[in-house]
Amino acid sequence: MMGFRAVLLRDLRLAIRQSADLALVLGFFVIAASLFPFGVGPSPDTLARIAPGVIWVLALLSVMLSLDRLFQQDLADGSLEQMALSPTPLSLVVLAKCLAHWLTTGLPLIAIAPVIGILLNLPAEGYAVLLAGLALGTPSLSLIGAVGAALSLGARRAGLLIALLVLPLYIPILIFGVTAVDAVLTSVQPTAHFLYLAAILMAAIPLAPLAAAAAVRHGVEG
Amino acid sequence: MHRFANPGQFMRVADKVLPWIVALCLPLIAAGLYFGLYASPPDFQQGETVRIMYIHVPTAFLAQGAYVVMALGSASFLIWKHPLGDLIARSAAPIGCVFCIICLVTGSLWGRPTWGTYWVWDARLTSMLILLFLYFGYLALANAFDDPARGDKPAAILALVGVVNIPLIKFSVYFFNTLHQKSTLAGDLFGAVFGEPEAAVQAENLPADLAAAAAQQGGDLPPEMLLPLMLMLAGFTLAFLALLILRLRGEFASVRLRSLRAGFRAEPRGA
Amino acid sequence: MAILSAHRLTCLRGARLVFEDLSFTLDAGGALLLTGPNGSGKSSLLRLLAGLLEPFDGHLEIDGAPVASDRDGQRARIAYIGHADPVKSTLTVRETLSFWADLAGLRDRRRLDAALGALDLSVLADARGAILSSGQRRRLSLARLLVSDANIWLLDEPTVGLDTVSVRAVEAMVADHRRNGGSVVLSTHIEFTLPGGQSLDLGDYAPGAVGRVPA
User: Fold this and answer.
1) Number of domains into which chain C is organized
2) What is the least distance, in Å, from the CA of A1 to any CA of chain C?
3) Domain assignment of residue B271, yes or no
4) Ramachandran angles phi, psi of C198, nearest 5°
5) C117 lies in some domain
6) Cβ(A147)–Cβ(A208) below 8 Å
7) Distance from B82 to chain C by nearest Cα, in Å?
8) Given an 8 Å threshold on Cβ–Cβ distance, is A154 in contact with B145?
9) Which of A180, B225, B235, C192 fits a 20 to 30 Å CA distance from B77?
10) Mean pLDDT of each 10-residue bin along chain B, 271 residues long
11) Is residue B9 part of a domain?
12) What is the end-to-end Cα distance of chain A in Å, rounded?
């Protein structure tokens, strides 16, 4: 647990001191969202219809863009191999890194999502369910993303590769997250959607770090 | 290179089996085509277009089967470090990918007369499309390293991650679909995802309208349509095996080539 | 009592056979100096001993137990210093060292200050990694050895970028470690005093004459 806490605090400290990275991700999220009214027209009805989907897809892409931060720099300066050699189990190290990644990417995205909701005319009753869905779904995005990021360590064009590996795996989370909002907007209880999102998270917490740790161990062989 | 001895033995057996597979496969496909294209009736609703099924269903079955083969090979590679497992996975991937593309193209050609459009986000087509993306990811990762041997473990891990995710992806896509097209499949959600393999061939891969039509007729295809379908299924499966052996040969040769080069390049003062 | 022993190791990197049939034994307090020309596999051997690489053939034993039987436990016994210095430009010297101490499971925080002192980093304790010179980064990297309880040190060119005074400090560190029963395997290109140490020329284990291409 000492090692878990150490990795978590270190990654948080690094993210806060390099907060320009976070600003880039949030900037992408907001700017990309504001392109949609130009693309589909400013009609409030159309925007309201697509708002949940747009916010979720962009949250997905924003998380994905920040994934190379998880391992890439630590691989380059030799930190990652030292973590792989430490007596702290590597899957615990990965889990700590995922938690730090979520706290510094997922959480800020959730915080800024309502602003995009306003820009896209999301109906008032949609906000709570959107944010709750993001809160349940984005940790899974970090965890599954960590597997993709770890697998592409040392590969050519790793950034693009991560997208190809991770986006198909994000589809279930996208579906449950968006349909939860749609359900509430058509006066249906989103209980099932939330249970599915929670189930994915519960499965990802133990499994994703295992797969990512195996990939990291291979990645530091380099 | 003692570690490659075992695949070598396997390849010798495979090479002996290959002619027999080809000899069986060709008449099966020929018979399947004969019964499928001439000696079976057109569908009472869909007419002649139903004959696309005799290609579409076997490719759908094999596109999914090839992924299972990949996952099994990858698992044996990761667990027992057996190099043959990696070679099998690498060889199966492009074949499965091509079957997946054929399945999507025939499905979309079938969709034009049936649905009046080339593509709908039908649950079956959508899951095949995502399966294709998973194949793309695997192939990209397996070939993304300067030293091809370095891609073996990441690709194997990805194949396992994919096979764990496929049921979830399918479930979510059916969930998505029942919400948006309440008509066709609502009751069939769990059956389609977790159904038995035999039933799955029909339940999962026929476009919705045909499945509904088949269900109206009592849930099964008439024997004169079932015969060519089964012939084609068997023929295509053997064709898959033949292609797998051929590709394995190539992969095996390139590994041997690399290990030979390793011996020749082992010059101490190099680099 | 052999702390670390290698049996007929063969190392394959990508498409290159680096060395083969390499065996050695290292006792408590022992030291092994790796020599050999560039590309003969000194770094590969150290990475292999650290567990970053799998041997293509042969096996390793730590305390007589084959490696991989208790990987996480055995990792606590080994400290490895590679070519890269894992120093973040936005973290201070103390933060960096404290992180590695936590990861190694060190509870006694006083050893942190002692380690900074031993490598003459005390005045830089609150400086960020960005302003460190390459020699200072190297010393910070080496300070990690003093905040872990590992008794096998694997040092890959530990003195690169260090001035003479610092090299002497590292020599003293290594001697101290060996006096306390620790063992060291290190590679270096400069003069490094290693009293009573064995030496291993990797050139002797280059793949046999078969297939050797003339330069």
Assistant:
1) 1
2) 9
3) no
4) -85, 170
5) yes
6) yes
7) 13
8) yes
9) B235
10) 59 88 93 87 79 91 95 93 89 96 93 85 90 96 87 94 92 84 40 38 45 47 85 95 93 81 48 32
11) yes
12) 28
